[in-house]
Amino acid sequence: MGNYENFDVEDFLCDEFFIKWVLKPEKELDLFWEEWRSKHPDREPVIVQAQKIARSIVIEPIDQQLSDAEVYSIIEYVEENSTDFLVQRSEEEFFPLQKTPRKHDRLHWFKIAASILFFIIAGIALNKMVSRKPASKLPPTEVGHLMSYLNNTGQSRLIRMSDGSLAVLKPNSKLTYPASFTGDKREVYLEGEAFFEVHKNHLRPFFVYAKNMVTKVLGTSFTVRAFTNDNEFKVVVNTGKVLVFNSKQAANQVFHSVTLVPNQEATFQRPLAQFKKDSVITPSVLSKEVAVKEFTFKNAALSTVISKLEQAYHVNIAYDEQRFGNATLTASLSNLPLDEKVKLIAKAINAQCDFTDGLIVIKENSAANQ
């Protein structure tokens, strides 16, 4: 038992005696906490909030050892059911007021999840050991309803999500996202850097959570950079309009948000917990006005088209140069997301394309040769 007079919500959630009372109440525990609460009425709101969070965790009994991926999924669930905060009214016209999950330090939340899990799974026989075979971390791994993709290669990888949105995941980066988006919003979690092309849906905004920075969009293209050891996080907008705000709220921390339009960027300064908004001096090749010129082709060699896509998106597109070396293309690709650009190119040269394991491959159309 701890010095409960000075406990906050998170301290209670890490206290085994408190968690045992909430999840497995006994007469002696009830007597203790009833007496303590009567002596400390000022702590009642903290107690009630901690009880709600602890009881919001629902985990089915298991018959095998928890894997690292399963523990990660539990931690995410704890975070998503913790205290929310309101997005400020100042952005209400474009981004309606709503609640957004508050992110806490992951190690601290692991302790909380572990305390709660101790009492949920105590007594369950863990007689099956999960076999762990060495495997490449390129293909996404499924954790319940979440997919987790770690790019530990030296090249960017393309991720296609269920709603049609794309993410070009940069090296040493990780993206966690639902296998299928449900509910009234689409949420993904980024560690590192990625370029997003979000499928427009005014009824279901798209959120990117990157450390203590959140980016909210309806349908646009932008880049988010948030590596763990960086002192600054950054969002750069190519097309559309986005709202960026800080998500980790401390008692003395002020809420900050900025709205960005094309060719603007926001830098989140971690020590100050503030945003700095700037214009991009040289517009990206994927910005609307530049893309119209760069991706409108007339009798262009396939190699030229592929090269421009690779440079713009920082990806590699594999194709048989001997087989398609003489192919040319006349088309405007400026308004299409990356995968649709590739599909159109493949169709124009009577080929097919494949996006397996984050790779982009244009290959001979097997159906046409049958």
TrEMBL record:
Residues 152-242 form the FecR protein domain. InterPro entries: FecR, FecR_C, Ferrdict_sens_TM. Pfam families: FecR (PF04773), FecR_C (PF16344). The keyword rRNA-binding does not apply. It comes from Mucilaginibacter yixingensis. Residues 294-356 form the Protein FecR C-terminal domain. This is FecR family protein. It comes from the Bacteria. The chain crosses the membrane at residues 109-126. The lineage of its organism: Bacteria, Pseudomonadati, Bacteroidota, Sphingobacteriia, Sphingobacteriales. Keywords: Membrane, Transmembrane, Transmembrane helix. GO terms for molecular function: sigma factor antagonist activity.
